[in-house]
Amino acid sequence: MSKICFLILAHKNHNQLLRLINHLKKDFDIYLHIDKISKLNLQSFDNVRVYKKHYVHYAEITQVTTTLFLIREAVKNNYDRYCFISGQDLPLKNNNDIQKFFDTNVDKEYIGYSQINSVKDNKIFSMPHYNRVQYYNFEGITRKILHSSIRNFISSLDITKNKIKYDIYYGSQWWNLTHNAIEYILSYLNKDKQFINQFKNVWGCDEFFFQSILLNSRFKDNCINDNLRYIDWREQKGSSPKTFTMEDYNDIKNNIKDNLFARKFDENIDNDIIDKLYKDLENSN
Q: For a disulfide at 11, which of 32, 35, 110, 228, Cβ 3.0-4.6 Å?
C-alpha cells in the first residue's frame, strides 16, 4: 500500500479548511502551510503538521518557495506519493478510492502541462507565456509603491533575463508526484542554483517551475498530463476559476470519473455545495 501525504496551502476559511483536514487525516498525513499574514490560527495535531512561516504572495516566487518548504518537511518521512492541494479543494473520491488509484498507478506523475517553446528549433508556440519567463516582470516587486499603469509600462519594456537554455512548460500549480520525482526536483535544485533565479520575477512562476524541471528530465515519459482535478474556467474571473455553488452540483458529479479533486469552493459564498459533496463522500464509503 502506497504511503501518501497531502501538502496544503491555505489562507482563509477556517471551518472549510478544518473539514478538509479532518476528512483526509483519517488515512493520510498532512503538511499544511498557512499564509503568515492570514488570521487563521491552527496548531499541529495528530498526523497534521501546521506551519505559518512564510508570507505567500499571489503568483509570485513565494508560492514556489513555500511549496518547496512543505516538500522538504514531508520528504523527511519518505512518502510514496505527495499530493499538493489548496485549502479550497475538495475530494471527489473517498479516501479508499484515492488510495486505490495511487496504488494502481505507482510510477505515474500526475501534473498538468503544456510546452510553450522549443529550444531545439527556436519555435515559440505561446508568446504571452514565453514572455513571462523570458522578461522581467515588475508586478510583484513594485505593487505596493507604483500605480498599476506604471507597473504595466515597466513590464512592457521587455527587459531580458538570461537566455533560456531549456524547454519551458506551464500548467496548474497543483500536482500529485511520486517520491522519486520529488527527490529529483530537490536534487536538481541543489545542482542548478540559478534555476530558481530564472523565476524570481516571473508572474505566475508557480505555473512553470515544477513542470519545467520534470518535463526536461528522465521523468518526462512518466508524466501524465492531468492533475486529477475538476476546475471550471468557463466563467473565468481575472486569473481565478469559477467558485462552485449548488448550481454546479450536477456538473461536478458528471466529472467525478476522471478526477480525484475539485476546486475551488468557498464556505462564505456557498457552503451548501460543500456539505452536499461531503455527504456524498460519506455515503460512498
A: 35
pLDDT digits (tens, 9 = 90+) for 73-98: 999 999 999 999 999 999 999 999 99
Q: What is the pLDDT of residues 148-188, one digit of tens each?
A: 555 455 555 544 455 667 788 989 999 999 999 999 999 99
**Other C-beta atoms lying within 10 Å of the C-beta of residue 236:** 10
For residue 22, the cross-strand partners are none
DSSP 170-215: E--S-EEEEHHHHHHHHHHHHH-TTTGGGGTT-TTGGGTHHHHHHT
Joined together, the cell numbers standing for residue 249 give: 452540483
Domain coordinates of the chain in residue numbers?
4-106+228-284, 112-170+197-224
pTM of the model: 0.88
Q: Are strands 29-34 and 4-10 parallel, antiparallel or unpaired?
A: parallel
Phi-psi region of 152 (alpha: psi -120 to 50; beta: other; left: phi over 0): alpha
Is the backbone of residue 60 left (phi > 0), alpha (psi -120 to 50) or beta?
beta
